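Quick review question:
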């Protein structure tokens, strides 16, 4: 899996509708399968970055809030999971963060990564939105989802 080959830290780029979210959810599913086989494996959790811009807290604070609000995890447990790196943040929709706050969101992610170093993580964003940012994500690997050509579509439909 490409995620494993890249220190489990990945930026996923693609055009609208190219399958970024689908790929992120497939990654979450694969990582959940691993966690079921190994209780020490961190649990992947999908977070939608669009809500980050509402308060623009440090990413750790935002992740804890999201775990409590959307996954009904008690705050102390959510904090412990983040601090002990028991979850894998899968961050979807950087392009859905309101435009004036996208650079700040990338900064928040980069600051979080400095604090938590090798914590596995994946982030999804539309290619054009990412390229227009003035800051870059400090992740070791970037994959770009390319559109299928006509023969690939026909081959898929035939199968």
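Suggested answer, residue by residue:
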């Amino acid at each position: 899996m490409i995620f494993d080959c890249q220190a489990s830290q990945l930026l996923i780029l693609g055009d609208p509708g190219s399958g970024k979210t689908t790929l992120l959810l497939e990654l979450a599913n694969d990582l959940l399968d691993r966690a079921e086989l190994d209780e020490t494996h961190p649990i992947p959790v999908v977070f939608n970055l669009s809500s980050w811009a509402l308060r623009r807290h440090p990413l750790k604070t935002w992740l804890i809030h999201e775990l409590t609000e959307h996954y009904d995890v008690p705050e102390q447990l959510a904090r412990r999971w983040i601090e002990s790196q028991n979850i894998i943040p899968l961050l979807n929709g950087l392009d859905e963060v309101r435009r004036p706050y996208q650079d700040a969101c990338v900064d928040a992610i980069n600051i979080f990564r400095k604090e938590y170093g090798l914590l596995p993580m994946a982030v999804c964003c539309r290619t054009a939105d990412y390229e227009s940012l003035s800051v870059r994500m400090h992740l070791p690997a970037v994959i770009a989802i390319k559109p299928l050509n006509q023969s690939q579509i026909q081959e898929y439909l035939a199968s």
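Why it works: The longest strand covers residues 9-14. DSSP finds eight helices and five strands in the chain.
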